[in-house]
Amino acid sequence: MVAALxxxxxxDATRRIRVLWDALEAEGVQSMRSLLAQRHRxxxxxxxxxxxxxxxxxxxxxxxxxxxxxxxxxxxxxQFVGRVLWLGVTPTADxxxxxxxxxDRLAAAGIALADQYRPGRWVPHCTLSMRVPNVLxxxxxxxxxxxxxxxxxxxxxxxxxxxxxxxxxxx
Length: 171
What we know:
This protein is 29% helix and 30% strand. The protein is of the alpha+beta class.
């Protein structure tokens, strides 16, 4: 398991993604709803690490509004190696600048982060499933495309590490 610094979405976008999770489940695809004893919340991760200490992260980000009211546009579906299905956020200058600002503060505090989430490598996304069977990937992507585009506003942020029972809100 990993820990993440997550951006949470407005009520309507969260509801629509949960409806998509249900549609994926109906196709036989285990969605994020099923994983982690239903503690998973739709989000976009800004940073990921094997472990994150919520107090250390909060200290590093003092004075930074992590939950900046960014407008996000989910415009496409994608797949990472390992059968991970996700909805992609169109990168905007504001989103990329916010991501870089957060990463710079965390790096300055000596917090070790996963390379694939560093500025210049990060693919902003909302994970839908971690285990899409190859034979069901086309149907799963089709379900995603049926509900796009999706507009969302960032309304919250937090450090989450479900394996350790951590869900720590950030400003």
